[in-house]
Specification:
This protein is of the alpha/beta class and 606 residues long. Helices cover 23% and strands 27% of the residues. Strands 1-2-3-4-5-6-7-11 form an eight-stranded parallel barrel, surrounded by five helices. Strands 9-8-28-29-30-27 form a six-stranded antiparallel sheet, with no helix packed on it. A six-stranded antiparallel beta barrel has the order 15-16-19-18-17-20. α10 runs parallel beside α11. It is globular, with a radius of gyration of 28 Å.
Length: 606
């Protein structure tokens, strides 16, 4: 059986446990330092606690160490990896190839999307050097994913939901170039979400003050089967900086979707065990989103951009039919409620927001009505009832277990087995005092052993076989059940096997013999790695340079020229513009270059 994984984000210990409880087969969490989200680091003790909890469900914990590293950090990183191995984490997610030159424990290594996993040749190279899994570039189409699967034998992980980096991963130096922190060092300031104006070569303003680089959020929930067919085995949710309700809602939704897909296929099963019992209906539109797109999964389209806002817009509710003094009427099958947050784009295409104070039939009384007009579309970006339900959710995840009890010479024997065939048996010595009411005694034994208390188990069946029906106080039955389930949990953890993998250094030739700053070589071990793999010329990482003028600070498949209808490749009658084009903010000017052959746009520092 091939195992299929739902991988959820863990901002911290609480978020990680929540993700597991709400159906994740694995979580990814930041190490104390050197993760691509510097604001989401975690202590080794918390990672250990999360790992122990996840392994009870045979779920996995992956730790991000996916920044590029400087020479003075190498020893600390190596020590951290050894500590994580001792803790029992299941894999390390890395970007810096210098890590492969270290003295490593036998722990699987995953290539972060930051290693720019964009072609089958690059993925094959990573496979050949000992990487166990590749996290694919978000820009890949189903066709390209299928090609990579056909030409490699490595595990493939794909993002399926969440915020989109507009740049090819690992190839964005925008934030660092404006002195705001390096994306490759976990400190991106997200300049891609800022306002820019688009200027032509004559100085004419083509677009004024729009979020030219801001994208909608990714949503592949309708493409689970397509991705399975293409060879994806791990479905990754973005969001280590999102809130807890996001983790609950999105993880639950994808759990349901993946389970539906797996139920119709032979030879596939989820990679962890246990069942999640939801007490709410997940809805992706009711959690943080900037609008959704399937990006480049099938073809290029103009639905990927969010030029008018970088904020969450939520779910489209309907159009305003009429506006009155202090209320409006909306044409919608959706029901708005008191305290909902709503938003809309005004006549200047600027996002406005307000709160619903009162709802009377079809009359909506907002906190502010001044900019609401007939015909505008209303979105709900905060669903008060849904968020209250999520916050109070008692969703649980349990392992099925079966208990047998029978009499022995000195008392009783108790056997417990779980859904993964873990099994324990123990004897309890007891004075054989017969119960006065045999039927009641059997009923009590069944009732108390059918409870699971605060354990991870759900007792599916209790079988009691007593030649002599003995008397058990309720407190004694509870203690027997507690000990039985504790022993079974210990047995589960004992039988959990971490995957072991030792990287054996080799000299597989790298794709190029000359690499520039976009290879992100920032330390002596990374340089040693590429030299060993046949690279003759190695340039310093962008973060090790001082002069950024004329350098590419972003490479993206999102094309502004295409977005405004000026692309000669896709438009029958393209808009005439005077090139080169420039993006401008209040302080800086950036040149845009277009690689039409490969459908890429480059942002150049001037």
């Amino acid at each position: 059986m091939k195992k299929i994984e739902l991988l959820a984000p863990a901002k911290n210990l609480e978020f990680g446990i929540t993700a597991i409880n709400y159906g994740a087969d694995a979580v990814y969490i930041g190490s104390p330092k050197f993760g691509a989200r510097a604001a989401a680091g975690n202590s080794l003790q918390d990672i250990k606690t999360l790992t122990n909890y996840a392994h009870k469900f045979y779920a996995k914990v992956y730790v991000t160490l996916n920044t590029i590293l400087f020479d003075n950090e190498l020893d600390e990183v190596q020590n951290t990896i050894h500590q994580l191995y001792e803790i029992g984490v299941d894999a390390i997610i890395i970007q810096d190839m210098g890590i492969l030159e270290m003295d490593l424990p036998p722990i699987p290594l995953f290539a972060s999307t930051q290693t720019n996993n964009y072609s089958w040749e690059k993925v094959k190279f990573l496979e050949n050097i000992g990487i166990q899994r590749v996290i694919l570039a978000r820009e890949l189409s189903l066709k390209h994913i299928s090609e990579i699967k056909a030409k490699t034998n490595i595990e493939l992980e794909s993002f399926v939901h969440g915020a989109l980096c507009v740049s090819l991963s690992g190839q964005c130096y925008f934030s660092h170039s404006i002195d705001k922190g390096s994306a490759n060092r976990g400190a991106c300031a997200q300049p891609c979400r800022a306002y820019y104006s688009l200027i032509d070569s004559a100085g004419k303003t083509l677009v004024k003050d729009k979020h030219l680089l801001s994208l909608k959020d990714l949503n592949f929930s309708n493409h689970i089967n397509d991705l399975l067919d293409a060879g994806i085995s791990s479905f990754k949710i973005e969001g280590r900086l999102k809130n807890l309700d996001y983790v609950k809602n999105v993880t639950s939704y994808y759990r349901s979707q993946i389970d539906e897909a797996l139920a119709l296929r032979d030879g596939l099963k989820k990679s962890s065990t246990g069942k999640t019992y939801f007490d709410f209906a997940p809805d992706l539109d009711k959690t943080f989103n900037r609008g959704y797109s399937d990006y480049f999964l099938n073809k290029r389209n103009k639905n990927i951009a969010s030029p008018h806002t970088q904020k969450s817009i939520g779910k489209l509710i309907g159009k305003v039919k009429s506006v009155h003094k202090n209320y409006f009427i909306i044409d919608s099958s959706e029901i708005l409620n008191n305290s909902d947050g709503i938003c809309f784009f005004d006549k200047n295409e600027t996002l406005q927001g307000t709160q619903v104070n009162k709802v009377e039939n079809d009359k909506i009384y907002p906190d502010s009505i001044s900019k609401i007009e007939s015909g505008i579309e209303i979105y709900r970006n905060f669903d008060f009832k849904f968020n209250k339900q999520l916050s109070g959710s008692k969703t649980e995840r349990n392992i099925s277990a079966f208990i047998n009890i029978w009499e022995n010479e000195n008392g009783i024997s108790i056997n417990a087995k779980d859904e993964d065939k873990n099994e324990i048996q123990w004897d309890f010595e007891k004075n054989k005092e017969l119960a006065k009411n045999a039927d009641k005694a059997i009923e009590n034994i069944n009732k108390q052993f059918s409870k699971s208390g605060d354990s991870i188990f759900k007792i599916e069946k209790v079988s009691v076989q007593l030649d002599n029906v003995l008397f058990f106080p309720i407190s004694e039955l509870n203690e027997l059940r507690r000990k039985t389930l504790e022993l079974l949990e210990v047995e589960r953890l004992k039988n959990y096997k971490n995957k072991s993998h030792t990287v054996i250094k080799n000299n597989t030739p790298f794709l190029d013999q000359n690499i520039d700053y976009k290879a992100n070589v920032s330390n002596k071990l990374a340089e040693q790695f590429y030299t060993r793999h046949g690279v003759k010329s190695i340039k310093n990482a962008f973060e090790n340079q001082d002069d950024f003028s004329g350098k590419e600070i972003m490479i993206t498949k999102h094309c502004i020229k295409y977005q405004i209808g000026a692309c000669e490749k896709f438009e029958k009658d393209p808009k005439k513009i005077s090139e080169p084009l420039y993006m401008m903010d209040n302080n800086r000017k950036y040149k845009l270059e277009f690689d039409c052959k490969d459908c890429l746009m480059k942002v150049i520092s001037t």
